[in-house]
Structure formats: structure tokens, C-alpha cells
């Protein structure tokens, strides 16, 4: 069993009043709160170690380098990458996907095809559109049904030797739907030579990730959604492909030799890590991995699934409340609207007055909102420190909002 009070004690931010009410933080899909161990790791780095990495022979620089590389190895184990140099520090999922899309430019030609899905966050749409603009490639989109479930027969009809990239998320941020990436990857491997990119922004905080078992070519996620500081993230890439593709940013640290005539690039992972990295953040991301592993994925997931089941059961008692993706396999998110209340932020504002933090609007997934013909939803998203009592507070809050706005 999870010792919830012990866990909550590690998140001092939760222990406060907002608008005169105890804070109920249900905006974890946007960013999670940070435990003391992560904050202590950050503080220790800046108060005892701070120095630039990979470039100094002095003691602090070596210490900073050791700590950051230790964190890289923790993350390697966390996602079961074969090699630590396949783990590249980024500032988040957005940067990771942009890096891949840019670095693949030379391998993509006119009329090649890139497949994404209807459930993607804008950051798994726009970088591919930009790649299409640079190269003349075409973007294709796996459709969804009214439950938000991906229609995979689309892949049977559309995968071909023209398909060069398939990029999908493992969990949808707007609806919480868990996508069948095993099936998507199996179909892709069987019917094309496409590279497979998995956006794990909403899965890495919840699931055990095994990139070798998944057999993806790239896996990207954000540290700040899994208890680590802002502007941290990871791009995993298979060695063979990382060696083949061009760097994203040019500059310090990513070169082997540099003359005005020609520059050769550093080995992995440094080829993709130009400039001074977020050393303190990258080290604290290792502390966030420790935090999750100390709880264990099993406990974390059991608790989060129980929260979701309870939230859904409670909210569905409210007449006129519609949950999007209600019948799909979901994790961590409940996304809903109240009949007759078209502006989700009106509900969000009332909930805020009650101390409840939810996200409202399109959640950077406008195509999903267009599909359902809505401007946005109210989204409550859960983390390991959330409680059933907090869901009761949400339930009462939504009923109150309905009364006030109805
Ligand atoms: N992909 C998915 C599936 C996401 O949920 C997000 C962020 C991103 C990519 C981008 O991550 P970033 O860390 O680079 O910003 N999603 C959300 C959200 O749902 N609310 O705020 C940010």
C-alpha cells in the first residue's frame, strides 16, 4: 500500500491554501509538483557543485560532470536503453521532437510520407508540418472514432515504402487515452521501413518504459511532468540512427574538431547537446527517477488508476456531464464538459475560487477539439500525491459550477 501522507509530506507546495481553500492540484498533465528530494538535489548542485560540465579539469567541473553523467545512467536504466549515449538531455518533449524532425531533414524526400495521429499535442504536429514544408513530404493522420480511439485500419491502408516516419503519443494529454503503440509499431515494422517516434510526455510519468521492448527508434518525454524541474527532458534514440542523422544545434561541446573549413562532430550523445546544458535540472531529473522508483511503478499506477476510476464514477453522476473518451482505455486524465456551458474556462474559474487547479481550453490539441466540435474541455489530471478526498472536492465543485452557470 501507498503511504499517501508520507508522499504528500514530500510536496510542501500542496500544503497551502489557494483563495482561502486547501489547494487541490489537478493540473499534473501540464506539470507535476516537485518532491523535496528533487528540490534538495537542485539546491545541493547550486550550493555545492555549480560548474560547467565536460570542459574543466578543476574539481567542481569534474564533480558536476560526474553527477550529470550519473543521472544519464539512471535515466538509461529507467527507460531500459541499451547504451547511456542513446540518452540525450533536452529541455522537454517539444525540443526533443523538433530535434528529431530537424535532424531527419536530409533523409526525407518529396512525396515521402509521415504519419501522425489525430490525438497528438501540437508539438507532435507542427515540427512534422515544418519538415514537410522543407522537404515536400506529406503528412497523414490516423483518424479517431467518437470515443477518441485510433482507427488502426488506416495503417493497413496507408503504410508503404513511402512512409518514412510514424510519430504518435503513448498517452493523449487532452483525453488520457492510452494508445496501442505495440500494435502501431508492429504494423509499421511489418509494412514499411519507417522510423518510429513515441511521444512519451504523458506516459513516462505513469508507466514503466522499456524502449528496447517497445522497439521504437525514438522516445521523447519531459522531466517536469514527472516530478523533475522545468526545462528538463529526454530524447532517447537508437544508436544506429543517432549516428546517421545530422545534429540539431551547432556550437560548443558538439564538435570533435572545428576549423573555418570544416567541423567534425563529437561522439554521442554530445553531438546533440550543443552549449551549456541545464546541469542542475538534469541532475535533479535523476532524483525524480529515484523518487518514482522508490514508490515503484506498480504502486504508482494502481493508485492513479484507482483515482481515475473514482473520479469517473463520481463525475458521471452529474447530469449533463460528458467525459470525452469515456469508453477508451485511459490513464491519469479525465476531460469533460457540462451540457449548455460552452466555455470550459468559466468552470475552471469557479473551481479555482474553490482552490481546485484544473486546466481548461484546447490543451494544445486543437484538432481533437475540432473533431468533437467544441472549443475546449475541463481537464483534471492526477499524480501520485492526489487523494480520493480531493476528488470529492472536485465533484462538489463541478456541481456548484453547474448550478452557478446553468
Ligand atoms: N506531448 C504531449 C503528449 C504533451 O502532453 C505535452 C505537454 C508535450 C508534448 C509538450 O511537452 P513540453 O514539456 O515540451 O511542453 N502537454 C501539456 C499539457 O497537456 N498541458 O500543458 C502542457
From TrEMBL:
It is an enzyme of class 2 (transferase). It comes from the Bacteria. InterPro entries: Aminotrans_V_dom, Cys_dSase_SufS, PyrdxlP-dep_Trfase, PyrdxlP-dep_Trfase_major, PyrdxlP-dep_Trfase_small. Its EC number is 2.8.1.7. The keyword Transferase applies. Residues 24-394 form the Aminotransferase class V domain. GO terms for molecular function: transaminase activity. Gene3D superfamilies: Aspartate Aminotransferase, domain 1 (3.90.1150.10), Type I PLP-dependent aspartate aminotransferase-like (Major domain) (3.40.640.10). It catalyses: (sulfur carrier)-H + L-cysteine = (sulfur carrier)-SH + L-alanine. NCBIfam families: sufS (TIGR01979). This is cysteine desulfurase. It comes from Kaistella montana.
Amino acid at each position: 500500500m501507498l503511504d499517501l501522507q508520507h508522499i504528500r509530506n514530500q510536496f510542501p507546495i500542496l500544503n497551502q491554501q489557494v483563495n482561502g481553500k486547501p489547494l487541490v492540484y489537478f493540473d499534473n498533465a501540464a506539470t507535476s509538483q516537485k518532491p523535496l528530494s528533487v528540490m534538495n538535489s537542485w539546491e545541493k548542485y547550486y550550493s555545492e557543485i555549480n560548474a560547467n560540465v565536460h570542459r574543466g579539469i578543476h574539481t567542481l567541473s569534474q564533480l558536476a560532470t560526474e553527477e550529470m553523467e550519473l543521472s544519464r545512467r539512471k535515466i538509461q536504466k529507467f527507460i531500459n536503453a541499451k547504451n547511456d549515449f542513446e540518452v540525450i538531455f533536452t529541455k522537454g518533449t517539444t525540443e526533443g521532437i523538433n530535434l528529431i524532425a530537424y535532424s531527419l531533414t536530409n533523409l526525407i524526400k518529396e512525396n515521402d510520407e509521415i504519419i501522425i495521429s489525430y490525438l497528438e499535442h501540437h508539438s507532435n504536429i507542427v515540427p512534422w508540418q515544418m519538415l514537410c514544408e522543407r522537404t515536400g513530404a506529406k503528412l497523414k493522420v490516423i483518424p479517431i472514432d467518437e470515443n477518441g480511439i485510433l482507427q488502426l485500419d488506416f495503417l493497413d491502408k496507408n503504410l508503404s515504402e513511402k512512409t518514412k516516419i510514424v510519430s504518435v503519443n503513448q498517452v493523449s494529454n487532452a483525453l488520457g487515452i492510452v494508445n496501442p503503440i505495440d500494435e502501431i509499431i508492429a504494423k509499421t515494422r511489418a509494412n514499411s521501413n519507417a522510423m518510429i517516434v513515441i511521444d512519451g510526455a504523458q506516459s513516462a510519468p505513469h508507466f514503466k518504459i522499456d524502449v528496447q521492448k517497445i522497439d521504437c527508434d525514438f522516445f521523447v518525454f519531459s522531466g517536469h511532468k514527472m516530478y523533475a524541474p522545468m526545462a528538463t527532458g529526454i530524447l532517447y534514440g537508437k544508436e544506429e540512427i543517432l549516428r546517421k542523422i545530422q545534429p540539431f544545434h551547432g556550437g560548443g561541446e558538439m564538435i570533435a574538431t572545428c576549423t573555418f573549413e570544416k567541423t567534425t562532430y563529437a561522439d554521442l550523445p554530445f553531438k546533440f547537446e550543443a552549449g551549456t546544458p541545464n546541469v542542475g535540472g538534469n541532475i535533479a531529473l535523476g532524483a525524480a527517477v529515484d523518487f518514482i522508483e522508490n514508490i515503484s511503478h506498480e504502486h504508482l499506477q494502481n493508485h492513479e488508476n484507482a483515482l481515475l476510476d473514482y473520479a469517473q464514477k463520481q463525475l458521471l453522476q452529474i447530469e449533463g456531464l460528458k467525459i470525452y473518451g469515456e469508453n477508451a482505455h485511459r490513464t491519469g486524465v479525465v476531460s469533460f464538459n457540462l451540457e449548455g456551458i460552452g466555455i470550459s474556462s468559466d468552470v475552471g474559474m469557479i473551481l479555482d475560487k474553490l482552490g481546485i487547479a484544473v486546466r481548461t481550453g484546447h490543451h494544445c490539441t486543437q484538432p481533437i477539439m475540432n473533431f468533437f466540435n467544441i472549443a475546449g474541455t475541463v481537464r483534471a489530471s492526477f499524480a501520485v500525491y492526489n487523494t480520493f478526498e480531493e476528488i470529492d472536492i472536485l465533484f462538489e465543485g463541478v456541481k456548484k459550477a453547474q448550478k452557478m452557470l446553468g
